[in-house]
Design goal:
By secondary structure, the chain is an alpha/beta fold. The chain is about 40% helix and about 15% strand. The protein has helices spanning about 15-25, 55-65, 80-95, 115-125, 140-145, 150, 170-185, 200-210, 220-230, 235-250, 260-265, 270-280; strands at about 5-10, 30-35, 50, 70-75, 100-105, 130-135, 155-160, 190, 215-220. The strands form two sheets. The chain has a seven-stranded parallel sheet with strand order 3-2-1-4-5-6-8, with helices on both faces. Strands 7-9 form a two-stranded parallel sheet. Strand 4 (about 70-75), helix 3 and strand 5 form a beta-alpha-beta unit. Helix 8 packs parallel to helix 12. It is globular and about 50 Å long.
Length: about 280
């Protein structure tokens, strides 16, 4: 129930954060959108916007003022996630935040050294209400995320071999997040996937059929993929993080399918085919 509590959503200008803002707004909750560049954030009229930069503690303190609950996301591909987010958790507790929903990643609970797992364990020990979401790779990566520019050039170039991934839409992750805020799922951990695992050749085929363009999947070696990322200007720490993620893909660890989305929100997650149909304009 919405009892007047205020929810701060970090990363509100990203694919997932924006979806969480929409999901909470649709449930008539009081949402404060936060990001590193609030001046560039296009939020619904009347919504409060605050600056938060994890490496500027004064912005964290200001952003958390008067907040009851927090949706916390890490910067993408950031090996320093724990060093940045653990102080935010500590500050949130000091500020009186009652509930943190942390967006982690599928499989990190199998590796205690993973940066996001370090954050999870700190949150679990913090002594406040928490919910941990562990989603798989986003479907939106193909439509508006880091793979969209590749697809615009006619291909998907990744070191994913022929392994499957149970891609999930950020809209489904956001629906889960909104429910956990609304119903206060304290102490819960959810592994969030789409309804089926697809390899990238299947993904390319579906996008090709819907867009009318010929999209090909090119299975790269890990070395070629990482060098391509460097050539695009990606920082070395993020390059290495990307290598770890796609090693997990090739190993089959991200092909798992769970029922957690349906168990929380009462409906199955969207299929990749339906997602592509709904976002067909992205590839025209």
């Amino acid at each position: 129930m919405n009892d007047g509590k205020k929810i701060l959503v970090t990363g509100a200008n990203g694919n997932l954060g924006g979806a969480v803002v929409r999901a909470l707004s649709n449930r008539a909750m009081t949402v404060i959108a936060a990001g590193t560049h609030p001046e560039n954030m296009q939020m619904p009229q009347g919504m409060e916007v605050r600056k938060i930069d994890y490496v500027q503690p004064e912005t964290v303190t200001a952003a958390l003022k008067g907040v009851d609950a927090l949706f916390l996301v890490a910067p993408p591909l950031d090996p320093e996630a724990a060093a940045k987010l653990n102080p935010v958790i500590d500050q949130a507790k000091f500020a009186g935040v009652r509930h943190i929903v942390f967006n982690s990643a599928l499989g990190v609970d199998q590796n205690d050294a993973a940066p996001l797992r370090v954050v999870e364990k700190n949150l679990m020990a913090a002594g406040l209400g928490y919910t941990i979401l562990r989603p798989n790779f986003f479907m939106e990566n193909f439509s508006s995320g880091f793979l969209a520019s590749m697809i615009a050039q006619g291909g998907i170039f990744l070191a994913a071999a022929d392994a499957g991934t149970s891609f999930i839409s950020v809209e489904d992750i956001a629906a889960v997040a909104a429910t956990t805020f609304e119903k206060e799922h304290f102490g819960a951990e959810y592994n969030l996937t789409g309804p089926a695992a697809l390899d990238h050749a299947q993904v390319a085929k579906i996008i090709s059929e819907v867009s009318g363009r010929q999209i090909q999947y090119h299975a790269l070696t890990e070395a070629a993929m990482l060098q391509g990322a460097r050539d695009q200007g990606m920082p070395e720490g993020a390059v290495q993080y990307m290598g770890v993620l796609y090693n997990a893909v090739r190993s089959g660890w991200l092909a798992a399918v769970t029922g957690d989305v349906e168990n929380v929100i009462g409906r199955p997650p969207v299929t990749f085919g339906d997602f592509v149909q709904a976002h067909a304009a992205a590839w025209k």
